[in-house]
Each structure stands twice: as structure tokens, then as C-alpha cells.
Design a protein that fits this description.
Layout (H helix, E strand, L loop, with lengths): L7 H5 L6 E5 L3 H6 L3 E7 L11 E4 L10 E5 L5 E5 L2 E6 L2 E9 L6 H17 L5 E10 L10 H13 L9 E7 L5 E9 L4 E3 L24 E3 L5 E7 L2 E2 L2 E2 L5 H18 L12 E5 L5 H11 L5 E5 L1 E2 L6 E8 L1
Parallel strand pairs: 2-3, 8-9, 16-17
Antiparallel strand pairs: 1-4, 2-4, 5-6, 6-7, 7-10, 8-10, 9-18, 11-12, 12-13, 13-19, 14-15, 16-19
This protein binds 3-(2-carboxyethyl)benzoic acid.
Protein name: Pteridine-dependent deoxygenase
Pfam families: FkbO_Hyg5-like_N
Length: about 325
């Protein structure tokens, strides 16, 4: 049974995937379009705009000027705030975001706990309660040793805040370290009124089954998510992980090649044709700014014409130099 008001899904099936694109417009012009679900600016130079749909992502882009990222849907969008949480919804899709100061919540674990608990509570009251994709940006992600590394504390708090939220399957996700205000935790998500289908990578141990050496709390995420209408694949942060191990320590080009093999394995696992095209926006998170030109050059050769936004970001395992995520339309 379909729930809620609109009956259009009963006839047309699940809503068409949001259109995700990199655009050189200014934020105000994109936000003025009635079907805009969210707009993202990157780095310290991003404008300050007072709109719940506007996000300043605390990652510096290696391109200047950096494009904005726009999410657009097929119906008019409503938006609002609920305490610190901001949201927008339209056409069966929901965007929700929280930015917390870890110091107000007892540190990285406490902040992750509160962020996920608040998102869960908000989503519970919505028609669009199927969470498909989550992004997490944490300061100083690799600081601290072993189980006290800040990413591991984030994983502890995330699991505690989620409780049994994702007992029936995890959403796709990204978790990346930023270099802005170190105590800032930013979490945002895409949800839908319809369930998607999670996709795992046969080359990789599922993240929630990672062995103890990677932390007390295994990270809860799916490698990718097919959106409800089966017309797009949301691809999680994908690094040079094979099995559960990090591959090619210290070798940027080999890590990038391994990522491309992982991405192709994911597409095959999702039943999609191989390769990326000019419609599918990707992001490359690069740990060392000095590596950015090399990453750009290698991706230009290996993924010609594919829009890839290069951002400075730290993969949650300190030996990993680069990670890709993004979208693929069917
Ligand atoms: C990996 O394959 C790399 O904790 O949400 C990728 C995507 C990674 C999401 C997360 C972590 C997360 O394990 C790390």
C-alpha cells in the first residue's frame, strides 16, 4: 500500500531520481528555481546564504572558481527548520542537514550520537522516511590513536545515535575529514518516500562486517544504493580497499586504479552497464593538495568527459590518499 497523500506514484511508480549537477550559476539563481531541493558550495569562499536548502561544505575545491552542486526534483519544494536541523522536500524526496559543534556534545562520539538521533527523530515524522544516502564531514578525522582516533569515535557515536534505525539495511554513505573549524561535524542526507536497494561490492568485505582491527564499531553503510525508480545509483565513498584491507599504501596512482576497479565492480553488482559518462557527477577527495594535479590528470585520462569535482578531504583511514563517490544514472 502506498501511504500519504499524492497518488501519482500509484500510477507512475516511484519518483524519478533527483538531478544532481555541478553548475557555475550563483546560489541565489539556483535557489530561486522552484524545483531546487538543495545547493552546495565548497570551501571557505562559498557564500553565506540564509536558506535551509543551502549548504557550505567545509571542503576546499581544487578548482577555482568552484562550481556549485545542485539537486533538483520534479515538483515544487518546501523547506524549513526544526531546531538546528534544516530540511527541504518535494516530489517524494527529502534533504535534511545538521551542523553541530562537537564541544557542545561532549566530543566526536557525543556529536555523532546527537546528530543521528535528531535526524532519526525528524525523519520518523516524515512521509519520506527511507534514507538512501548520507554524507558526513568531520574535522581532524585521523587525529588520535587506535580506538581513540576521531573517526572511530564518530563511528561509535553514529551507531549509538542510530540504534536500530538501519536494522533492515544501511544507506550508502561518505565519511571524510575536513580542514575547516576542527570541531564542526556536518551530516546531510537524501531520503525518499520509497525504499531503494542497497548494493555491495563483491571485491570488498561489507563495511558493517569489518574485523575488530578497524575499530570497536564497524562503520554502518552500504557500498551503493539504487534509487527507488532504479534510474540512478548513489555510490558511497569508494577507496582502495580490497577485502577489508587498504591496498597500495603510499602509491597514489595504484590507489586510484584500484578505486576504478571497485567502481566498475559496483556498477556490475548493481546490474548497470560499465563506465561513467558526462551526466554522472563524481567527487574525488584528495588528502594531500600536492596530489591534486596528478589525480586530475589521471582521472582525465581514465574517465574522459566525466564531471569530477576535486576536493581536499581526508579518507578515514590515514594510509588512504584518495576516495571517489558520486552518481551514475541508468
Ligand atoms: C572504506 O571503504 C572507506 O564511515 O560512512 C567510505 C564510505 C568509508 C563511508 C563511513 C567510510 C564511510 O571503508 C571509508
Amino acid at each position: 500500500m502506498l501511504e500519504g497523500c499524492g497518488s501519482r506514484w500509484a500510477e507512475a511508480g516511484p519518483a524519478r531520481a533527483p538531478r544532481i549537477s555541478y553548475r557555475m550559476n550563483d546560489a541565489a539563481a539556483l535557489l530561486a528555481e522552484p524545483d531546487t531541493l538543495a545547493v552546495f558550495g565548497f570551501g571557505a569562499g562559498a557564500a553565506a546564504v540564509d536558506d535551509p536548502r543551502w549548504m557550505r561544505v567545509p571542503l576546499e575545491a581544487f578548482d577555482a572558481p568552484a562550481p556549485l552542486e545542485a539537486w533538483q526534483v520534479d515538483d515544487p519544494v518546501q523547506h524549513g527548520r526544526d531546531g538546528a536541523l534544516r530540511w527541504s522536500a518535494g516530489g517524494g524526496w527529502l534533504f535534511a542537514a545538521l551542523e553541530l559543534d562537537e564541544r557542545e556534545h561532549g566530543g566526536p562520539a557525543g556529536a555523532a550520537h546527537v546528530a543521528y538521533a535528531q535526524l532519526r527523530e525528524f525523519i520518523h515524522g516524515r512521509h519520506e522516511r527511507q534514507v538512501l544516502r548520507i554524507w558526513n564531514y568531520q574535522g581532524a578525522i585521523n587525529q588520535g590513536e587506535n580506538d581513540a582516533e576521531r573517526y572511530k569515535l564518530f563511528c561509535d557515536g553514529r551507531a549509538a545515535g542510530c540504534g536500530d534505525w538501519f536494522a533492515n539495511g544501511y544507506p550508502a554513505a561518505t565519511a571524510i575529514g575536513h580542514h575547516a573549524e576542527p570541531h564542526l561535524l556536518q551530516v546531510y542526507l537524501l531520503a525518499s518516500s520509497q525504499a531503494g536497494s542497497a548494493v555491495e561490492n563483491p571485491r570488498q568485505v561489507s563495511a558493517w562486517r569489518y574485523p575488530r582491527q578497524y575499530g570497536r564499531t564497524a562503520p554502518g553503510f552500504a557500498r551503493a544504493m539504487r534509487l527507488p525508480a532504479q534510474d540512478a545509483l548513489a555510490i558511497s565513498g569508494t577507496a582502495a580497499v580490497v577485502g577489508h584491507a587498504s591496498a597500495h599504501e603510499g602509491d597514489l596512482a595504484a590507489q586510484l586504479e584500484e578505486i576504478l576497479v571497485n567502481l566498475e565492480a559496483l556498477l556490475a553488482s548493481a546490474g548497470m552497464p560499465a563506465g561513467f559518462d558526462t551526466h554522472a557527477p563524481l567527487k574525488a577527495y584528495v588528502r594531500h593538495p600536492a596530489d591534486a594535479p596528478r589525480v586530475r590528470e589521471l582521472l582525465k585520462q581514465r574517465l574522459p568527459g566525466v564531471p569530477v569535482l576535486l576536493l581536499q578531504g581526508d579518507v578515514c583511514r590515514s594510509e588512504l590518499l584518495v576516495e571517489l563517490d558520486g552518481w551514475r544514472y541508468a
